[in-house]
Fold this sequence. Notes:
The protein is mostly helical. The chain is 69% helix and 4% strand. The protein has helices at 2-9, 16-39, 60-69, 72-102, and strands at residues 47-48, 54-55. It has a two-stranded antiparallel sheet. A hairpin with a 5-residue loop joins strand 1 and strand 2 (54-55).
Amino acid sequence: MAMEAYTSKYPDKIHTDLLSDARQTCYKARDAFYACLEKESNIKANEIAAVGLLYPVECKKTREFYEKVCRRTWVTHFERKYCTKKRALQTLLDDNESKKAAGVYV
């Protein structure tokens, strides 16, 4: 509320300090959510996020805070990035396993 009052007095001024603080808060919330996701990776995921990312109910509170402090477009971007990274890693692991099964070692 205080930020809104301050920014409404100076609508044409860009408040880089406020933007930087908001960005850092978002990054911390994102990191906490994905840390929870990795920590609880052995638990069956039953909650659905924006781009189809599944996460366990144990991470619901960190997810809610993450969605609250980050812009929706950022959340979607970070989720797509995370899913792409996980798929690439899984493909790499699957590829190495298939090569080992075939007797080919890199």
